[in-house]
Amino acid sequence: MDAITALHNRVSSPLLKEPAPSPEQLEILLKAAMRAPDHKMLKPWRFIIIEGQGRERFGELLAEAAQAKDPQINDDALIKARNKPLRAPIIIVSIACFSEHPKVPEVEQLITAGAAANNIVTAAFALGLGAYWRTGSPAYDETVKQGLGLTNNEEITGFIYLGTPDGRNRRLPESDTSECSSYWPG
Ligand SMILES: Cc1cc2nc3c(=O)[nH]c(=O)nc-3n(C[C@H](O)[C@H](O)[C@H](O)COP(=O)(O)O)c2cc1C
Prior knowledge:
By secondary structure, the chain is α+β, with helices and mostly antiparallel strands. Helices cover about 40% and strands about 20% of the residues. The protein has six helices and five strands. Strands 1, 2, 3, 4 and 5 form a five-stranded antiparallel sheet that branches. Helix 2 (about 25-35) packs antiparallel against helix 5 (about 105-125) and helix 3 packs antiparallel against helix 4 (about 75-85). The longest helix has 21 residues, at about 105-125. The radius of gyration is 18 Å and the shape is globular. The mean pLDDT is about 95. Bound molecules: flavin mononucleotide.
């Protein structure tokens, strides 16, 4: 699929099944991430890949975080937290890594890290893969961040669920660019 077709038509895939992206496809996605616009080339990103049984370990971490947050949590909610990572064959945890720079404030580094994550979901769509970018409370949870080995200068920008789309992509309405653009000075 060419770049403009992918950019104009990308949709998320809420339901994902096997097969997982191949190692070659994962490499393509990560290379796409690394071409995000990046002021001073700080590379303020890193990615953790969770697959196979790693997803079960990650589910345990999510359950532990949920219990730490709410010691009264019921079994159903714990099971729900534990099963979340099993919704896709592979998850890429997208991380923003901040450093001090006199010309590049943190907000710009966060934008770049977000653009890198966006390149992953768009490249996935272009390859015919399914992707779903999620955050939710686990993205901001200290237990989760520690369990994944994040440092104090890092933040999770997303859990990108990846696999084969299960079902057809939803139909998109035509985009009306006049909704979001104007000419200045008129
Ligand atoms: C930073 C970020 C975090 C998101 N977190 C969630 C989330 O936790 N749960 C969710 O259902 N969608 C989340 N989304 C939105 C979905 O990824 C998706 O973009 C949205 O459902 C619209 O669908 P579409 O991508 O097919 O247009 C998030 C998107 C971004 C950019």
